[in-house]
Design brief:
single chain; about 500 residues; alpha/beta; Alkaline Phosphatase, subunit A; Arylsulfatase, C-terminal domain; 2 domains; 4-stranded antiparallel β-sheet; 10 helices; 20 strands; globular
């Protein structure tokens, strides 16, 4: 039986590569806080995103694609691991000093590519914790990081731009760290004598609207306290270009080898401090300017592919970790200058929300001559990354570890017009979407977050919406459609208990 199983896998691999030719490169561009209405190709008439629009023009644009969560850490965990983050109680928005949520040796999308002979790299935002229980050792070799779960190269920020430590990690060490100036981080109390946004607002070049008033780095108050590492601190204005340069360098060095690049941008997350090339150019505040900077980064990567003659053999996937938020802690002109721009399009909610705008995001796949040009209404979930990439490569994977991931390559290649039967979404409450129906589980919690001005979708009662006739999710049909309510509620409970 073991011999027959090996033969089966061998034939699968052969058929896969005969079908697709030489091993294709794969680039995943994982944008931060990009909304369903932020891009021209998704209907925006305000902010110009020509490079991303061109990517969509030459590829397949999905209109019913979802993250697994309305916040970043759970989405990233699920995408890389193939397991819903709600199965782990500790998979919430991670602090900057959190220990690794995916410890070394575990299966990820990167291990799938690595075992298939690919060179693999992550560039950009990590936000999945580092190090063993108790957190990372910032002043030495950082264990349980990307290099321990399938990535051969890493150039990352540990968490987010608004959280300390504000340093880059290159492979498994803090870049440019001086031994005589060790880093200390604390999220419970103030340490050292570094100025803070709360105590020294006169030192801020960007004021905070709520929170974000701890240690000041580069004139911006952050979440958490940090001392040391002065030589290693990043410059926010240069961050997008720094990440783009690292990604392009990886592509150039691996132009003759199959590669997988996970490019996780910081844009358009706060603090939004774009380079002077983009500042004030959108007319919609710093968030709009950061969108222009994001589009430029995407353009740089695509031009590099063209110059290396790799475009035809590279699958490019662009999507977002969750829906949009305008004021997420800083006074940066984004709220005041929003104008007619609608980051969520015509969807209800946003980041943090169980409503559609929390998890329904842009999803574009481009692979010349392999993926048709056009639009797809197929239902897609990022939970399927691992299984779908395994199917692309013709390899097997540990289905117990990635229990929620399903192979959907035919959908991503535009052959299957339906996609998943249903998807599960995580925010304040769990939700499930099947066909034209969506069920949001009852639960405690605020219905509205006034700090970010977003409806969270929480309610003490079950919610049921028919999205085809009620895309705004305004008419709760739970009391009228009891049979459909029971169907979706039972299906969600089945998923929760797997």
């Amino acid at each position: 039986m073991k011999f027959l199983s090996c033969i089966k896998v061998f034939l699968f691999v052969c058929v896969s590569f005969l079908t697709f030719g030489q091993k294709p490169n794969v680039i995943v561009i994982y944008v931060d806080d990009l909304g369903f209405g932020d891009l021209g190709c998704y209907g925006s008439k305000t902010i110009k995103t020509p490079n991303i629009d061109q990517l969509a023009k030459n590829g397949l644009l999905f209109t019913q694609a979802h993250t697994t969560s309305a916040t970043c850490t759970p989405s990233r965990y699920s995408l890389l691991k193939g397991e819903y983050a709600f199965r782990r109680k500790d998979t919430v928005v991670a602090t900057g000093d959190a220990s690794a949520l995916i410890p070394g040796g575990q299966q990820t999308v990167a291990t799938i590519f690595s075992k298939a002979g690919y060179n693999t790299a992550v560039v950009g935002k990590w936000h999945l914790g580092l190090g063993p229980l108790g957190g990372p050792n910032w002043n030495g070799k950082i264990a349980d990081g990307p290099l321990d779960i399938g990535f051969k190269e890493a150039f990352i920020m540990p968490a987010t731009g608004d959280r300390v430590p504000c340093v880059y990690i290159e492979n498994d060490h803090v870049r440019n760290l001086a031994i005589q100036d060790p880093i200390q981080v604390n999220y419970l109390k103030k340490i050292g004598n570094q100025p803070s946004g709360k105590e020294n607002p006169e030192l801020l070049k960007m004021k905070h609207s709520h929170g974000h008033d701890n240690t000041i780095v580069n004139g911006v108050g952050r979440i958490g306290f940090m001392v040391g590492g002065q030589q290693a601190l990043w410059n926010d204005e240069d961050m997008a270009q720094t990440f783009a340069d690292k990604a392009k360098s990886f592509m150039v060095r691996n132009q003759k080898n199959p590669f997988f690049l996970y490019f996780a941008t910081h844009d358009i997350h706060v603090p939004r401090i774009p380079h002077s090339r983009f500042l004030g150019k959108s007319g919609f505040g710093n968030r709009g300017d950061a969108l222009l900077q994001l589009d430029d980064s995407v353009g740089q990567l695509m031009k590099t592919l063209d110059s290396l003659h790799l475009t035809s053999n590279t699958m490019v996937i662009l999507t977002s970790d969750n829906g949009p938020v305008v004021d997420d802690g800083y006074i940066d002109g984004s709220k005041e200058n929003l104008g007619l721009h609608q980051p969520a399009g015509n969807l209800r909610g946003g980041k943090y929300s169980s409503f559609e705008a929390g998890t329904r995001v842009p999803f574009i796949v481009r692979w010349p001559k392999k993926v048709p040009v056009g639009k797809s209404n197929a239902l897609v979930s990022q939970i399927d990354f691992l299984a779908t990439m395994s199917q692309l490569l013709g390899t097997t994977f540990n289905e117990i570890s990635a229990k929620d991931s399903r192979a959907n390559l035919s959908t991503w290649l535009g052959k299957n017009k339906t996609g998943r039967e249903y998807i599960v979404e995580q925010a304040g409450s769990l939700a499930i979407k099947k066909g034209d129906w969506k069920f949001i589980r009852s639960g405690k919690g605020a219905k509205f977050n006034p700090l970010v001005n977003i409806e969270l979708g929480n309610d003490l009662e079950d919610q049921l919406y028919h999205l085809k006739t009620d895309p705004d999710e305004k008419m709760n049909l739970a009391s009228q459609q009891k049979e459909k309510l029971h169907e979706l509620k039972s299906l969600l409970e089945l998923e929760m208990n797997k």
